[in-house]
Each structure stands twice: as C-alpha cells, then as structure tokens.
Amino acid sequence: MTANQAMIENYRNSFLKEVEANVEEGEWVKMCMQCGVCSGSCPLGKFWDHPPQEIFMMIRAGKRDQVLGSDSMWMCTSCYNCIVRCPRELPITHIMHGLAHYAKRLGLVPANQPTAKFAQKFWDNLMAKGRVNELKLGLSLYFMNGFGEGVKVAMKNQKLGMNMMKAKRMNPMEIMGGHAVQDLSGFQKAIKKAAELEDARIAQPGG
Amino acid sequence: MADEKKFAGYICTGCGIGERLDAGQLETTAKRDGKLAEVKQHEMLCGKEAIQMIRDDIANEGITHLMLAACSRRAKVEAFTFPEVAISRANLREGVIWLRPDEDDNRETTQEMADDYIRMACAEVKYMNKPVPSGEQELNKTLLVVGGGMTGMTAAVEAAKAGYPVQLVAEEPELGGVWTDLYKRVPFQAAAKDVPNGRDVDLPQPEDPGVETLAAEVAANDKVTVHLNAKITKTSGAPGRFSVDIGTESGGTATENVGAIIQASDYKPYDAGQLPEFAYGKTPDVVTGFELEKLAKEAAGGPIKRPSDGKEVKSVAFIQCAGQRSDKEGHLPYCSGFCCTESIKQAMYFKEQNADCDATVLFDDLRTPGAAGEDFYRAAQQAMVTFSKGKATEVVADGGLKVKFKDLILDEDTELDCDLVVLATGQVPNVGPDPYAQLAVEEAEDEEEKAKAQALLENAPPSILNLDYRQGTDLPQLKHGFVDSHFICFPYETRRTGIYAAGPVRRPMDMKQAMEDAVGATMKAIQAVENAGQGRAAHPRVGDLSYPTFRKEGCTQCKRCTVECPFGAINEDEQKYPLFNESRCRRCGTCMGACPVRVISFENYSIDTVGQQLKNVEVPDEFEEKPRILALACENDAYPALDMAAQAGEELTPWARVIPIRCLGSVSLSWVTDALNSGYDGIVLMGCRRDDDYQCHFVRGSAMAAERMSKVGDTLQSLNLEPERVAIYEVAITDTKRAPQLINDMAETVDKIGMSPFKF
Ligand code: SF4
Ligand code: SF4
Ligand code: SF4
Ligand code: SF4
To answer: CATH number for the B619-760 domain, one of 2.40.30, 3.30.310, 2.60.120, 3.40.50?
Structure first.
C-alpha cells in the first residue's frame, strides 16, 4: 500500500481532518471565513487554478485529489501579502507550503512542475555537502531544460558570473565538487534521523 | 398675570456685530419700524451683566415680550432663557455677518439684511405669547408593558428599578413569550481580550437562556403586577393619563390608569409552510430553528433525536436565510439579523454532545451582530462546524435527506446527505393592524376602493393596544409591518406619543438587542411620564410648553388636521370638532399648516408669527434690482445646516431672508401666497427627507408639506408667475455647503427670469 492509499484509508471521511493532522499549520484551515481577501491580495492567485480561499473551501468540501494534485500551492512565492491581510490571521503562506510538502510526501506532485523540480534540485544539492553549492545549483538550473537551452542561458549570464568572481562572491573552483560542512556525516545522520521520526509520526493516524 | 403687553428690544454688538453693522441704525429700525418703545444695545448680550440687565428690566419694568438681536436662536440658548416672557430672536451673527463677506461694497446690502431681520423679529414677537401648560396634565408614574417575553420582562424590571410601578400584560399563561422554548442562548459577551496563548482561546460558548431567572425576578418584584392570559381591550386617554382595560381569559376586566406604555409584543416565527422547496411539512426531519430549540430542550444535553424515527442525529445541515432576503412571493424581503448566530449556536449543540456529528451551515453572508458575534463564530469553527458559502436550492426527502445547493466559492452545483435539516427562518413583527388601513376604509372615495381597503383590514392581525383613537387602534407601521419610529434619532419614539416600541416589534433583532432596546424604551417612557406631568413636549421639541389650539367659530370641520397629524393627537368631540390632546401632541404644527381656514395656532408659533415676519421685510421696488428670496427652513436640519455653513464661512446671497419653521409640515400655503403677493422674487422651502427613508423629525410632516405644495403650481399660474419661483428641497443637517447653495441658486434663477412684477 502506498503512503497515499494509507492516508485515504485513515481519513476516509474527512480530508479536513487529514489536513489538520498532517499539514503544517493545517489546523487553521477550519478558521477561514471565506472572505476572499487572500485571493484578492495574492499577486499570482489569478494565474492559479485555485487561489488560497478556494483551496481552503475545497479542503472543507473534501476534494482531496484536486487539492493535493493541484499545482496552485507550488506557485506560492512567499510574498506574505495574504498573511498580513487575512482578517482571521491564518498563516496562509505556511499552509500553502505545508500542502505542497504533504503532496510531495504522498507522491502527488504534478509532473514537470517547475518549482517542485527546483525544490528537488535545491534539496539534493544541499544534501551532498551539507551546504548549498551555488555554482552547481545555478548551472543545474540553467541546464534543467536541456543542453542547448542551458548554454544559451549561461552565455547570457556570463558577465554577471565574471563580476561575481571578481568580487569574490563566487569561486570557480567549487565546480570541482566544492567544500562540505565540517561534520558531513554527522549532518547526514541528523537528517536521516529527522526523516525517520517524521515518517513514523505521519504513519500514525491522527498525527 | 397682567394682560398688558410690554415690549423691549436688545441688540448685541459683540462677536463682530458692532463692527460689521451700524448698531445705531438697527436700533432706529427696531424703534421706528419694529415699534419697540425700549431698545438697548450691549457689547456682550449673553454675558452675566447683560443678562442681569434684562432680568432687572423684566422684573422692574414689567417687560412681557423680548426681541433679542444677536446670534442664532440655536446659540446661547441657556443664557437667553427667560421663562416668564415671550422671546423672538433676530439672527445677526450666523444669519447675517458670518454668511456675508466683509467688504466695503457689500456693506449696504448686509445692513439691509440685518435691518430686515430686526423688523422680522419685532413683528414675530408682537404675535407671540408666553406658552403656558393647559392645566389638563397629570402625573401618573405607572407604566404599562405589553408583552411577557424577554423584552417586556426587561422593561418591567428596569422600570421597577427606577422606582416606577409596572402593569405587565402577557397573552400567554406564563412569562417568557417567544423565548420560552430556548435551550440555550447566544452568549452576551465577547471573549476576554487578554487571554494567554492567543485570541482563539476561551471563546464564548452557548449559555443559559436566563428566561426562568428573569421571570422569577419579575414575579418576585412587588412593583410589577403581572396579568397573564390577558389582553388589552381598550386604551384611551393620553400620556400621563392613559386608561387601559385589561381583559382576562376568565372574562374579567381590570381598568388601570398608566402614564406611558411600552409595546414589547416581540415577533411571530415565520410560517415555514411557505417553503415547500425545502420539504418543510413533507417530513418532520426538516424543522425551523425555533423548532430545533424545542428538540434540544427535550434532549436536555443528550443526543438530539430525529423527529421521524427517534434516531440520534449524525449529520445536520443548516440552511441560512430560509424564506428571507428574497423577493419571492411569501418570503421576507429583509434579513432577520438573529438567525446566523442562532444557527451557529445550534450547530454547537450537536458538536457538544457528539464531536463526530457532521454539522454544516450553508450560508450566503454570515452576519454575526452583537458583542460575542465574531468570537462566537470562531468558537463554532474551532468545534469543527463546517461553514460553506452556498445557496440551498432544494431539500429532497426520500428516505434520507439530500440538500442540493450551489457552492458559491467553487461555483458548482452539489449536494449533501444528512439526517436533519434546520431552516433558519425569520421574525415577523407581532403587531396589530396598520391604523391607516382602518382609516383608508373610512376615507375611501368609492365602493371599489372601500372594498379593497376592507379586504386589507380584514386580513389584518387582531389589535394589540385597542387604542380608542380616531386614527386607528394600533401603532402606525413603516415597512414590512414593523412599527414606525424615527430610526436614526429616536428609535423608541413611535407615532403615538407616550407609547414606546421595544424589541423585534420595531425591527428584527436577537435577545440581547431586545433586552437593550427594552432598557432604552423604558427610559423614554419614564421621560414621557415626567414630561406629561408638566405639560411638556416629548421628542423632538423636548420641554416645549406650547400646544395647538383652534378657533372653534372659524372651523369648518374639514378634518384635515385630524387626518394629517402624524401622531394621532387629535380626536373628535361629540359635535365633530377637533379635540386636541396636548400631551399626545409633538408640537410640529402640521395641523396648523394643514388647516385651510387657518384657525389653528400655538401661543408662540402661528400663521401670524411667520406671516408677519415675511410681510415686514422691506421689498425694494423693481428698479432697485434687489430681489428678495424667502427661505423657510426646518429648524431641525436645514436651519442648523445654514448656521453651520455660516460657521464654516460659506456665503449666502444678500437677497435671502430666512425664517426657521418647526417642520415643513407646518407651512401654510397662505405664507407662500402672501409672499408672492408682497413681491418676493423666489421662495425656497427646506425640510427633511421624506417618505420611506424619511429623516423628518415629525415623520410625516415633510411628506405632507410636499403634497400640499404640489398645489402651489395653481397659485403661481393664477398670478401668472413662473413655476421656478417656488422650490422645495430635502436638506440634511450635514448639507452645510448645499443649504446656502440652494438659496443662491434661486437668486441666479431670479436673475435669469427677472424680478417679480408684484412689487409696489
Ligand atoms: S504568500 Fe503565496 S499565497 Fe500568499 S499572497 Fe504571496 S504568493 Fe499568494
Ligand atoms: S483572507 Fe483568510 S479568512 Fe479570508 S478567505 Fe483567505 S484565508 Fe480565509
Ligand atoms: S399635527 Fe403636530 S402640532 Fe398638530 S396636534 Fe399633531 S402633533 Fe400636535
Ligand atoms: S383643519 Fe382647521 S377647519 Fe379643518 S377641522 Fe381642523 S381646525 Fe377645523
């Protein structure tokens, strides 16, 4: 049984309860009063399938697949416009990221979702040395959509790169693998343990 | 009191009046044109020294009539109170110097304006008398409270606390009224402000309804006499001396004398039988919010059972605005304003006894008035009540219940299954028949009209007050059957003086508001009792001692006054003459304006006090090119607006002569005709907003005047004058720019169409 199926079993009746238990700040969703201020404030909301207000309504209406499979919450830029304006003080931005995170955990991320792809690259990059290798991360981003495209973008940003090197903001030697945090294996162990703990918690129905 | 009149005038030269105007000239005008024997000037008339001077003159010289030329009659009211004499005031400060620019080439017209106001005030005071109470008033401190619900009980307890005995009449066999069945009530208080760990802790929860406690308090109060199973069979008299017959079921009648009345007859639940689309009546599992309270009370904290088969309710849906806020036939067009918080509360009943019970509230707008409102809403959200913005269209009952609705956020038609449906239905005011429906029958012009009015009357609910008034048995209504009262300024004051409306009979409201309303209405009733005892008017001319009388010899028994009086103050005597009731009267003068033979007057306000003012304005002949514009401005809104315009430095045409009037309703057509005949070039009438959204302080005065003035066209035509010369406007107290502008506009109009040919 996949993690997703297990969750469906556990919370058969209430997607809202599932969100409360598993999504960061999910217990706030029930407090939304459907005023729509967040959707109206979100600079990107109008490009989304479901702006925040709608996402909350869908959660309450039990539309599990549409919500978790949606790419809306992946589009959140963390601008925090909604949070500062929500009259009910919902931590909307955090809930958006919480939902994205939960969907990712259940393997429900829409295919080729660019922000999801970037997030994965960021994570992998970070895990390798315990710190972010900006040069490699940048380059992997340039070549994300194929080699030809990558060369083009790299050429366009050439001057910026040179200037950064001159200002000692970027070290070309980092391309050779790059330096790691002091205790890399300790770092990796800590991460692994945290992942285990979280998996165990999620496996419990009701969080 | 000596009958001899002795006049004196006082001119203030303070506040810049002395600098802007030639006070010597004003004095001459007062003496020569105003025929005042004695005129004095003072540099600060409202100061201690000058007031003492006036007092001494009254005492030593036997002055009976004062003309004070200073600031507006609305300023320095306290200083210029001399109860033993009649007073007129010439408004030189706000009315003249503040509205006119201080420039050399204006000096002449400004002085002319001031001279005219002196002439007007002198003429006015000549026709005034000091008002004295009629002597027919009585002080009776007992209040009658009609209705045994929370509203009525609160009124009774509050009156008793203030030391006023109460006769409480309730139709039901016990106290509690429409609130008797409540299981719990919506909390009265908001969450505490400073709760540790954030604002959603310790939110208000449903609380004990308090009906029994209050009923016990009423029963135990020895100042309150309760009549149960009782109805009022007759109410006659006036504030201070109402006589009320109380009939009991057993057939007995008790007669009580009371000073004032509070009608707290609350509401009737809306008849959900008009909602077949929601399967009401088809299955007992669709109930109204009122009925759910009964179910919850029976369950007494245990699981709430489904009426059809007694099974525990596992899922419940609330349909908000059921039969409300809708213009469909048989629906209520208004929002009852209490049902959202009621549904929130009821949804919590289910969650309280079983957290797994699904409770969904389908709302369009969730409206949560009251202190606890938003906090209470959040309390229910915390309890996992689901709130869905959706409009229910249908309830299908075949075995289970299916609620079809349109999700307004997701914009889709959807449905939900449940065990029980609760319809949030509204309040219908519990009133007697509209008194003007009754009058309509009596006054019907032909048989067809009569039959129509009769049908309306026959479908009317039974009377509650059974007033023995010529103008009908009950309180006049405004919209949707709610009792009419001045919504903004004096909400408890109905159109029957001394009778106050409290609670949902006035507008839909929840228990908390109804109880607050009861306190307000009780305080007003107490004031009414005290005022009536001294022959003083109630709102808005509080304390006024003048009252209308009529010259019987001149009266043609046309009944205009009895019909037009907005407050039903005038009855009829055995010989069919009008019978004025001083303490029912609000002193608006609408009767005076209505009387075609001009026989009605007040001691200090009459056809002459205004008519002589406008006749004593000096109208220059045509060739001087100085038009005269008469403005009759309502003292409640338009006149203050002009005063405030003056304070704000607005400008008024020097041709204007403004006369304050009690109400546009008091304007007699004869004033308009006289003004046109004396050569005025334009007339501007300014009163409050009329009709359904009225702001008229006398409710109907402004509307009556508008109707009357529609006949001015004939007068103008017969004089061969342009219709633009008379204009009538609705002016609010906030119209400080617009009020002078309207008069200035008339000056422009006159400029265009030319001067009146009626100058001599
Ligand atoms: S924080 Fe995210 S959801 Fe909120 S307004 Fe910004 S982009 Fe929209
Ligand atoms: S602003 Fe807050 S309360 Fe309003 S719809 Fe968005 S989340 Fe809900
Ligand atoms: S019309 Fe006005 S002044 Fe005349 S009796 Fe009625 S309330 Fe009094
Ligand atoms: S309006 Fe005048 S004439 Fe007519 S009944 Fe009244 S007092 Fe008499």
So the answer is: 3.40.50
Say yes or no: A104 and A121 in one domain. Answer: no
Q: What would the mean pLDDT of B581-587 be, rounded to a whole number?
A: 92
Of B541, B432, B523, B559, the C-alpha closest to B484 is: B432
pLDDT value, residue B44: 96
Return all residues near B1 (Cβ < 8 A) that are at least 6 apart.
Answer: none
pLDDT at residue A199 greater than cutoff 90: no
For B508-530, write each residue's pLDDT tens digit: 999 999 999 999 999 999 999 99
Residue in A with minimal Cα distance to B367: A33
Distances (CA, A) of B418 to B115, B294, B302, B396, B401: 81, 20, 19, 11, 5
Q: Which helix (H) or strand (E) holds B404?
A: strand B400-407
Residues in chain A within 8 Å Cβ distance of B389: 34, 57
Q: What is the 3-state secondary structure (H, E, C) of B547-612?
A: CCEECHHHCCCCCHHHHHCCCCCEEECCCCCEEECHHHCCCCCHHHHHCCCCCEECCCCCHHHHHH
Query: Between β-strands B400-407 and B386-398, what pairing exists: parallel, antiparallel or unpaired?
Result: antiparallel
Chain B interface includes A41 (CB < 8 A) = no
Strands B65-70 and B656-661, bridge-based pairing: unpaired
Candidates 3.30.70.20, 3.40.50.300, 3.30.300.30, 3.30.457.10; CATH matching B546-601? 3.30.70.20
- Residue with the nearest Cα to atom 1 of ligand 3? B565
Assess contact for B504 and B334: CB atoms under 8 A. no
At A10, the pLDDT band (50, 70, 90 cuts) reads low
Residue nearest to atom 2 of ligand 3 (CA): B588
Domain that holds residue A174: 114-197
Would the pLDDT of B370 be above 60? yes
pLDDT computed for residue A170 by the predictor: 80
**How crowded is residue B420: how many other Cβ atoms within 10 Å of its Cβ?**
27
B128 Cα–ligand 2 center, Å = 66
State the span(s) of chain B assigned CATH 3.50.50.60.
143-266+476-534, 274-428
Q: Ligand 1 centre and the CA of A46: distance in Å? A: 11
Of A16, A30, A53, the CB nearest to B409: A53
| B3: pLDDT strictly greater than 70 | no
Co-location of A122 and A72 in the same domain: no
Question: Closest chain A residue to B415 measured between Cα atoms?
Answer: A61
The reply to whether the predicted model has a pTM over 0.95 is no
pLDDT at A207 over 60: no
Report, as an integer, the average pLDDT of B157-164: 98
Could you give the CA distance from residue A56 to residue B299 in angstroms, rounded to a whole number?
34
> What is the torsion angle, in degrees rounded to the nearest 10, for the CA atoms of residue B326, residue B332, residue B338 and residue B344?
-50
Confidence (pLDDT) at B196: 63
Residue A154 confidence (pLDDT) above 70: yes
For residue B86, is it left (φ>0), alpha (ψ between -120 and 50) or beta?
A: beta
Chain B CB contacts of A33 below 8 Å? 366, 377, 381, 387
Quote the pLDDT of residue A57: 93
Distance CA B194, CA B215 (A): 34
